[in-house]
Amino acid sequence: MIFVTVGTHEQQFNRLVQCVDELRIKNVIKEEVIIQKGYSTYEPNACECCDFFPYKEMISLVEKARIVITHGGPSSFIMPLQIGKIPVVVPRRKEFDEHVNDHQLNFCREVAERQGNIIVVEEIDKLGDTLSNYDAVVAAMPAEMKSNNAKFCKELEKIVRGMF
Fold first, then answer.
1. Of 90, 116, 121, 158, which is the most buried if we count CB atoms within 10 A?
2. CA 120 → CA 34, 91, 96, 134, distances in Å?
């Protein structure tokens, strides 16, 4: 199963919802798809959808999903990471009236570059290829999440030692 979430932002994300639905119609996606479509106005024909799910149900859907596709909001892609899933992230874009600016695009680029633990799809026409090659892409990614905690602790220890 593939689970798609567009978050709770009050602008539509028809571009993602429609693309996933069309990939399912064209049989590029062969498995069941469940979409949390938020304020999107596009109504999927080949995917199960709901405007919003309760949080516990969202967690359950993420746990059950083979692939999680999400918008670029940190809460939406951090949850799959916490459960051990590598999310496919499609940032909302200002040019498509999906957000007020392109902060999701910029933030996702930074996370992908620094952490290497999300798959960012900037161009929606690349989503089908990304999903078709998902397992290979994930297998080529770092095995563990990078954390700044160890770096922070090491630097703090240097400061404390320097004080004495």
1. 90
2. 20, 8, 17, 12
Give 96's DSSP letter: G
* pLDDT, tens only, 10-47: 999 999 999 999 999 999 999 999 999 999 999 999 99
Residues in contact with 61: Cβ distance below 8 Å, sequence separation at least 6, in sequence order = 3, 34, 36, 53
15/114 Cα distance (integer angstroms): 27
Q: Are 49 and 37 in contact (CB under 8 A)?
A: yes
Query: Are the C-beta atoms of residues 129 and 44 closer than 8 Å to each other?
Result: no
Q: What is the DSSP letter of 41?
A: -
The structure tokens listed for 97 are 């009236």
| Separation of alpha carbons 82 and 49, rounded Å | 24
pTM of the full structure: 0.85
